[in-house]
Write a structure and sequence with these properties.
263 residues, alpha/beta, Nitrilase/N-carbamoyl-D-aminoacid amidohydrolase, 6-stranded mixed sheet, 7 helices, globular, binds the ligand NC(=O)CCC(=O)C(=O)O
């Protein structure tokens, strides 16, 4: 079985939610022409890292985003791994990811677990405490957000129940893009899973340059798609899901684990 995935690499306008919703809608409308099975968005695409303005711009209970993404998923009959958005829930702010299936049903809600101090995320955002596993078109998958990829034990835990695709949404600066690539290839190889990672482009509030470099990687670590740096659009890749069982059968890293020794 081949799964067609469209990576939406896009600029994010600082604190301008309406402009960003319009941009996502336009890019999804363009991407569906290629008839993808899954669409993937970057991190914090509703307002960027507008951390000091969260009281004005965070999406209350994610209501606007959920309604928006559910509507697009249903309208185009496509699964959407909705990157993440800044949300306000109770008295706290979160970096929240929503996943919708083709019927527009919410499959997962995940609050980023590892907060990135270098971009002051930990001062403003509350860390999540739950996993992000979901099933799309009968394929078990998991999702993480940006800095989460530096914690291989987190991805291992998420993928240890048979996950076949790891989705990553990010705002990862160009200056560390080589680390991004190496870590994503490592997460693919060690979990024998496809990795689909979408990074934003454009400039951040503290002078960061985000170049994109979104990637789709196969379970052997080969790069299937590298989106050109600084290019905006939907970029589509085919994942041959059939290749996975053979790879997992030949080198059974999950069943060869010695978890009794790992303390
Ligand atoms: N938004 C993020 O979590 C950025 C993580 C990052 O840049 C890193 O180097 O890690």
């Amino acid at each position: 079985m081949v799964l067609k995935v469209s990576l939406i690499q896009m600029n994010v306008e600082y604190a301008r939610a309406n402009a960003n919703y319009e941009r996502v809608q336009r890019l999804i409308e363009e991407a569906v022409v290629e008839n993808p099975d899954v669409i993937v968005l970057p991190e914090m695409w509703n307002v960027g890292y507008a951390l000091e303005k969260l009281n004005e711009v965070a999406d209350k209970d994610g209501r606007t985003t959920k309604c928006f993404l559910a509507g697009l998923a249903q309208r185009f009959h496509v699964n959407i791994v909705g990157g993440s958005v800044a949300t306000a829930k109770g008295n706290a702010y979160y970096n929240t990811s929503y996943v919708f299936n083709r019927e527009g049903e919410l499959c997962s809600e995940y609050d980023k677990v590892h907060l990135f101090g270098l971009m002051h995320e930990d001062k403003w955002i509350t860390a999540g405490k739950k996993m992000n596993r979901f099933v799309l078109d009968d394929i078990p998958a998991a999702g993480v957000i940006c800095y989460d990829i530096r914690f291989p034990e987190w991805e291992r835990t998420l993928m240890s129940k048979g996950g076949k695709i790891l989705f990553v949404s990010a705002q990862w600066p160009k200056e560390r893009i080589e680390q991004w690539k190496i870590m994503l290839q490592s997460r693919a190889i060690e979990n024998q899973a496809f990795v689909v990672a979408v990074n934003r482009i454009g400039e951040g509030p503290n002078g960061e340059h985000f170049s994109g470099h979104s990637l789709a990687i196969d379970p052997l670590g080969n790069i299937l798609l590298r989106v050109p740096d600084d290019k905006e659009g939907g970029f589509t890749v085919n994942l041959n899901m059939g290749s996975l069982e053979k790879i997992r059968g030949e080198i059974p890293v999950f069943s060869d684990r010695r978890t009794e020794l790992y303390h």
